Amino acid sequence: MASLLVLMVILWLCIRLVAIGLRYWRRRAAQRAAEPVAAEPVAVVTDVESHAAVYEAHRRHRWDVTRRQYHSRPTWTFALTDGVEDWARGWMTGDLAHAPYSRDTEWLWADEFGIDPWRESVEFELFERAIADGIIQVPTPGHLMYAETSYDPFGSIYGFVPDEFEEGMVCSCAVVTPEDKGWGVETGPDAVAAWLTAVITSFAETKPYVPRGALRRRYTH
Predict the structure, then answer these.
(1) d(CA 110, CA 216)
(2) How far apart are CA 135 and CA 128, in angstroms?
(3) Who's near 50: CB < 8 A, 6+ residues apart?
(4) Sign of the dihedral through C-alpha 180, 185, 186, 192
(5) Residue 168, by phi and psi: left (phi above 0), alpha (psi -120 to 50) or beta?
(6) Residues 108-166: pLDDT tens digits?
(7) How far apart are CA 206 and CA 76, in angstroms?
(8) Which one of 76, 112, 118, 190 is least enclosed by Cβ atoms within 10 Å?
């Protein structure tokens, strides 16, 4: 009889423990359900590849347009007439008639063209005056620009931008060094002739070209 009583007590304790455990887990489940769910962190991804693809597509488009425009003409011929010095003597007066083209005398040349030499290029103004006066023959209306700077040898690579071009330029295939232009050595009309001859000679061979940056119409020191 005693053993039966002990067995019933043990059974009752087991039932109580199971009941207590069930109540505990139900309470924990209710608490978890009531807790706000933390939002998962959203990964911000910069789509570098898509930006690179857009840039590359734009670059290819610019080159395709430039090549098509360039090859729309069989040749790109630039010529300089005789008598450049006589032409220059007609408008070079005073100190300018004996001045070299250099950093120290650039203001003299700039005054002749009515420009600020720190913002605009004497070379471009001279080129345009030569075109307007028939000293230079160009294949189509346009203007001169800097295409690239060369460091071996040091000098400028010029580009001609036709007015009809949507993109790019006609680029010369030769570097024009300061020595080629008679920089600081030739004076007056001789300096004009040296520079125009060097630039036109550099366009003996040309190629289509799209600069890496914006087209540089203005001159910077």
Answers:
(1) 18
(2) 10
(3) none
(4) positive
(5) left
(6) 999 999 998 888 889 999 999 999 999 999 999 999 999 999 998 999 999 999 999 99
(7) 7
(8) 118
